Predict the 3D structure of the following.
Amino acid sequence: MASHSNLLKLPRQVRAQLWQNLLCPPGGIALHVNQDIAIDDDCLPDEDEDEAANAAYARSLSAASPLPIAILYTNRQIYTECTKILYGDNKFRFECDPVTVRTFLEFFPSTHRHSFKHLAFGRSATTADDGDVRSGWRAMHSFMRRCMKVDVVTIWVPRDGCEEGEWYFWPAAEGLVELLVEGKFGSLRLYFAEAYTDIETWLPVSKPVCLKADVKLEDIGAVEKLTRSRRGIALRREHRCAVDEGTVVVLTTSPR
């Protein structure tokens, strides 16, 4: 108990930095289905499936790199301080289908769920070839509209984002743009992820897509399609510290 008391004697700013170092890895928290726990990894959850089965599958989500969350259960004050930082200062990247993401987020009480500020959807979240992807993303968009208060959403754009981009990407991205326009979050980041050497075999190239600096953002296939006929959207290229990190195009709503 004495060690806990000593921690709380530290200035609040120092404690906050300590919780940051413990609970906020540099790349955020990547969540994926643990195949050792999932009840059936050959069949993805579906909106029409039994809710209990979907919940059991969602409970198999685990972080790629475990966090020392035992600190949360030290005492009530540390729990309050840590959860605010854990949910509010991390980027949560989901590598699973939208039904599993929504079911997972439903586990949290609203006070914690409203603390999530940055959600990211990796390639696995938009290219699943099982289940009704449109139905799953419609439900996810509706859930975000009603139950989340995020500031930033990141979505991985397959290949180079041209018109012939993977069909599964569009139900996710188009609905997210609508939420952006409605003011449900502040910015939508399009991360141009792995390129593909063969559209039939979907063999990924090892490094992300780096769009040429002189390319107009409005002319990029994915950007043009998502912003077509929508007014009031501003575009900018996010600065990346290394070329190998690829290109991120940020969509925001223009000031009125």
About this structure: The chain is about 35% helix and 20% strand. The longest strand covers residues 152-157.
